[in-house]
Amino acid sequence: GAVVSQHPSWVICKSGTSVKIECRSLDFQATTMFWYRQFPKQSLMLMATSNEGSKATYEQGVEKDKFLINHASLTLSTLTVTSAHPEDSSFYICSASGTSDNEQFFGPGTRLTVL
Amino acid sequence: LAKTTQPISMDSYEGQEVNITCSHNNIATNDYITWYQQFPSQGPRFIIQGYKTKVTNEVASLFIPADRKSSTLSLPRVSLSDTAVYYCLVGQFSGYSTLTFGKGTMLLVSP
After folding, report:
1. How far apart are CA A44 and CA A22, in angstroms?
2. In 3D, which of B56, B58, B52, B57 has the Cα closest to residue B71?
3. Which of A93, A97, A105 is closest, CB to CB, to B95?
4. In the 8-state DSSP scheme, what is residue B79?
5. Alpha-carbon span B93 to A98, nearest angstrom
6. Residues of A in Cβ contact (< 8 Å) with B58
7. Which of A8, B78, B84, B103 has the smallest count of CB within 10 Å of its CB?
8. 3-state class of B80 per DSSP?
9. Which of B39, B49, B51, B93 to mutate to test the interface with A (most CBs of A within 10 A)?
10. How far is A1 from chain B, CA to nearest CA, in Å?
11. CA nearest to B32, candidates B75, B73, B93
12. Contact between B45 and A34 using a beta-carbon 8 Å cutoff
């Protein structure tokens, strides 16, 4: 299957700083990328859907000004957690799909710890 | 989006066959059924996908009855490394379609 990468795989930051997480589709063009958040022992929760070249669509309860999503190309989407706080500590996972695939391809996830 | 219901957890022993059933009573005509596996601190990994009847690949089989209101993931001869959370998802997995993850089934395989 297609490969999706994330960078970094883990990050520790101080409260109040911003953190950028990259999601790349390595061998296919991803018209749509999705960002999920997963807290310990819980399921994945969809945060937002981003289409290349347009604004992201955020799920209810997700602050768009706090979680900035950019999908500037067909192979790269970024999630920036602005002014991070300890409650933002979580496992962030992206997925990507192309128009011709009947599958979403998931990245390996990024562990964010805010001190 | 079709809601899914799975057992919260299952226990098995190495070498046994494990069957995990998922209910999706309001599945739509165009929806596919896909199962993902997730290990701790990793992204979900695609296992198998089907629309109807039976699908088999190198790691699992998926059984879907005619009414498509449920599906069963069958893992033959599980090993310790199959200990993971298994998610059943229903929907259209291409393009802009969003996925809703349920709670999944925590499978624990013991020696």
Report:
1. 18
2. B52
3. A97
4. -
5. 10
6. none
7. A8
8. helix
9. B93
10. 9
11. B93
12. no
Q: For A88-112, what is each residue's pLDDT tens digit?
A: 999 999 999 876 656 788 999 999 9
User: Residue B80 corresponds to which amino acid?
Assistant: L
37-66 in chain A: CB under 8 A from chain B: 43-46, 49, 51
pLDDT tens digit sequence for B55-102: 999 999 999 999 999 999 999 999 999 999 999 999 876 666 778 888
* Rounded distance between C-alpha atoms, residue B91 and residue A110, angstroms: 26
Residues of A in contact with B97 (CB under 8 A): 97
Token pair 């005619």: residue:
B66
Is A99 part of the contact surface with chain B (CB cutoff 8 Å)? Answer: yes
A111 φ, ψ to 5°? -90, 115
Give B19's strand partners: B74
AA identity, residue B73: L
Contacts A103 to B, Cβ<8 Å? 34, 46, 49, 93-94
Cβ contact B101:B3 at 8 Å: no
CA distance B50 to B55: 6
Contact status of A8 with chain B (Cβ, < 8 Å) = no
